[in-house]
Structures are given as C-alpha cells and as structure tokens.
Specification:
The chain contains nine helices and eleven strands. The strands form three sheets. Strands 4, 5, 6, 7, 8, 10 and 11 form a seven-stranded mixed sheet that branches. Strands 1-2 form a two-stranded antiparallel ribbon. A two-stranded parallel ribbon has the order 3-9. The termini are far apart.
C-alpha cells in the first residue's frame, strides 16, 4: 500500500511530453492542451499543428467542467468588451452608423452638390465620413458652370479570366473615371475603353476584347440599383446615346453611380431590370 502510494506521488503531474516522449511534461498548451517539456517541443507542436498557443476564449465549456481559470478568463473577456464599447462611444467617427437626415456635418460643397442633384431629380445619398466609399468619391458640383462632374465606376462584365485564375466564373473588369461631365453621353464616356485608337483601350485590349469587338454601338449599359428593396439583385437599363445626368434622373445614387457595361442586350450577372421609381 505504501509502495503504490509513493509510486503514484512520483508520477509526473502532466505526464510525459507528447512531442518527444522522452521527458516529463512541464507545460500544457492553453489552446490544444498538448503537453510539452521544453521550448523546442513547444515550437515543434505549434508548427506541426498550426497552433498559435492562445486559448479560444469563445469556446463553449459546460458549466460542470469550468474551473476558476475559465471563470477568470471569461470575466476578463467581458471587461475587455466593456472597455472596447466605451472606447467606441468616445470615437466621433464611430458614434453613428446611420444618419436618418443625411445632413449631419455636410460641408458647403457637399450641400450644393446634393441640392444640384435634387433639382435634377436625382436622389443623391452621401455617406458618413468614415465610410470608404465616401472617402473615394470625387463627384463635385462646379458652381460657376452649374454642372455636376460625376465619379463613375465602370464594371465591364463577361470579361475572360486571367490564365492563372482557377475560377469558372467570368471576371469583371473595373475602371473608375474621377470626373465625368453630366452632359456627356454614356457612349462618349465609355468610348475610350472601346476605341482601339485610344491609349486606354489599347492598354486593356486583352481583357476588353469582346467589348471592343462588339463596338460602342452594340454595348448595353446598366445602372446598379440602390435605395430599393433587394437592390443587390436589380439594375436599371440606361440609354447609351443619352447624357449621364439624364440617365440618372429618377434614381437613387449612393455617393457615385456604378454602371455595368455588357456586349449582350440582357441584364448582366443574373440581375433583374426594373423601372425607375420602383419601390
């Protein structure tokens, strides 16, 4: 009886190292609970198991299996969450994620831009300053000319994928024009991507070959629908020979318009065409 008790007391507390199986384990990984004896074994186990050694603080642990360590860890986690929330409340750029009036903090140029769009029957929505789309927007209203110069995002659809792309789906070529005069037609604005006599078209001849083969007269233009139910599935048909500003009339634009360009007469990417003013 004494021998058995003395033998049990001599057994290693954590057992034998699970990496080298030669020495007594001294450490237990907080995440995967692998027992190791030294720094070398710790590094081996991290490399082979792709383990970062950090306990998963959101992992579910049954109440009857929780120890004082788990309780203290959860308490610290809640404290950190509270500090994070309080810090966000004091950060002015994070205080609002939605502005119902959409007039908070607008500068004079932005207010003039929205007013000019309103008189053109365009519902222009400007996001808060901390949104990336707002930071990218270069649309402005020229007070002297009384004209809006729009930032336009062009998405040429059904573009061949790159040779090293394993995706089966057709790719989309994205281009951005920082200043597009509202009185220019879509055909004139997109001509530089299709006319091979222009440098932009030549530089992207491989990706835009199908659109350039079709020619500017055969291209169809579609405006991404915004401000309507299920907007991600809808688009508006645009007229190539109509000015940009006229095409945007009666529609909602968030910061700047996104226009799909296709060499097929049907809506691109499985989208459904809707009429202006559809609710």
């Amino acid at each position: 009886m004494t021998d058995s008790s003395s033998n049990s007391s001599c057994l290693p507390r954590l057992g034998i190292c699970e990496v080298c199986a030669a020495k007594e384990a001294l450490y237990a990984c907080p995440k995967c609970e692998v027992k190791t004896c030294c720094l070398a074994c710790v590094q081996i186990h991290k490399k082979e198991l792709a383990c970062d050694g950090q306990r998963d603080r959101t992992k579910f642990v049954p109440l009857n299996q929780m120890t004082a360590t788990e309780f203290m860890s959860d308490y610290c986690f809640l404290e950190e969450a509270t500090r994070f929330t309080e810090a966000r409340k004091s950060d002015r750029s994070k205080r609002f994620t939605h502005d119902s009036s959409n007039n908070r903090g607008l500068s004079v140029p932005q207010h003039r831009l929205r007013t000019a769009a309103y008189w053109r029957n365009i519902r222009l929505e400007l996001l808060l300053p901390n949104f990336s789309k707002h930071k990218e927007n270069t649309t402005y209203f020229d007070w002297k000319l009384r004209r809006i110069f729009w930032r336009v995002e062009w998405l040429f659809v059904n573009v061949p994928t790159e040779e090293n792309d394993d995706s089966q789906a057709e790719a989309v070529a994205r281009f951005v024009d920082a200043r597009c005069h509202e009185d220019e037609t879509l055909a004139d604005l997109a001509l530089k991507y299709v006319d091979l006599q222009q440098e932009t078209a030549l530089n992207h001849r491989k990706r835009l070959a199908r659109h350039q083969t079709a020619g500017i007269g055969q291209l169809s233009f579609w405006l991404r629908a915004e401000g309507v139910p299920r907007s991600a599935r809808h688009c508006y048909a645009l007229e190539a020979v109509t000015p940009l500003g006229t095409n945007l009339a009666g529609k909602t634009v968030i910061e700047f318009p996104t226009i799909y360009v296709s060499y097929e007469p049907k809506p691109p990417l499985g989208l459904e065409a809707i009429e202006s003013g559809t609710a």
